[in-house]
Amino acid sequence: MNNAVPAHPAVFRADSWSGLLDALAPHRGKRIVFTNGCYDILHPGHVDLLARARAQGDILVLGLNSDASVRSLGKGDDRPVNPFPVRAYVLAHLASVDFVAEFDESTPYELIKAVRPQVLVKGGDWSVDKIVGRDIVEADGGIVLSLPLLGGFSTTALLAKIRGEK
After folding, report:
1. Per residue, what are the HEC states of the chain?
2. pTM score of the predicted model
3. What is the mean pLDDT of the chain?
4. Residue 77: what pLDDT?
5. Are 31 and 118 spatial neighbours (Cβ–Cβ below 8 Å)?
6. What pLDDT score was predicted for residue 166?
């Protein structure tokens, strides 16, 4: 399978956050929302959460785990199924996503510190007190939200079905 995808101007690799910050500069008067995840195999739960996150402000920055970061989370030896360029390309084409930024660490803490969003969003499987970057956003006067998930969708469950495990 050929995983080569064209470059997308809204995708920033972990070594190009300065480009992301430059791209965000004209939007600094607007309400910037940040969320993050692996988004390995895009499903309706992902699309729903991203749309609702975007509805919390004017610009949505999606922090996307690098391939090494996904592997470090212990999701399985074959994860991510789709490499970063493929995941980022698909996500950058969603109407709800304005920018996609890669991060190599297990959490997006440093990326959140760089972006300084006014709103930080995670899915409802995260309690607000456990959301990484909460301290940064709240110290800046922003809000942190844990939005309910659209039930019945999970990449792990989808992969188990594909593998014939369930």
Report:
1. CCCCCCCCCCEECHHHHHHHHHHHHHHCCCCEEEEEECCCCCCHHHHHHHHHHHCCCCEEEEEEECHHHHHHCCCCCCCCCCCHHHHHHHHHCCCCCCEEEEECCCCCHHHHHHHCCCEEEEECCCCHHHCCCHHHHHHCCCEEEEECCCCCCCHHHHHHHHCCCC
2. 0.94
3. 94
4. 80
5. yes
6. 66
